[in-house]
Amino acid sequence: MNPAIDLILSHRSIRQFTAEPIEPTQLDAILAAAQAAPSSSFLQATSIIRVMAPEAREQLAVLSGHQPYVAQAAEFLVFCADYHRHRQIVPDAKTGYAEQLLIGAIDGALMAQNALLAAQSLALGGVYIGGIRNNPAEVSDLLGLPLHVIPLFGLCLGHPAQAPEQKPRLPRTLVVHQECYQHQLDHDLLAQYDQQMESYYHTRSGYNKQQNWSGQVRAILGKESRPFMLGFLQARGFNLK
User: Fold this and answer.
1) What's the CATH class of domain 3-164?
2) Whose C-alpha in 74, 149, 174, 198 is 20 to 30 A from the C-alpha of 24?
3) Stated pTM of the model
4) What Pfam families does its record include (predicted)?
């Protein structure tokens, strides 16, 4: 192992923060790390909205599903897929393709992970907020996002006020396939992981719940997931073809 791998493997989502601000030099380093991420075809199809106004933070906390740490964190960054910038350079740009949505989302995820790793290296912590997609139109209006820009997710950053237990990941043999996809799921190995996750949820110091991983998947995928999203994307000039 080395310090970089140790840092990656130590990841925990932090949802409780002290009132201490992030130093400007630290934020500058975090944003520089974000921009250093790879970009497909070097389109750089992502923008970051830094939200500081308390009123806007409170609204975003509500729009994200009443997640109070959105308002409490020292910094809140919203990562957006952005082709508005490109269309100002090339007004007749051929946008709206599903592939371009994937590029913007992947670029945004790579930037955000760089940002979070940089923050963790500075003894800071954070948590991703996918909940801003609960109300994407309202978030877009609040942030003044033009056509061809959509919010992907938020990122809370700050000084940790908690040290949560690390959540166990799936056994690697269920994730990493050799040469080709292994269609048959190892149910015995999955059952062991379900038992491990059930124990984790039961004993962790934060919110306890009686559930295993398979149950969580069943609960999430057993219902519609933001069925309004396709209409929102198309209204914003994405995923038209």
Assistant:
1) alpha beta
2) 149
3) 0.95
4) Nitroreductase
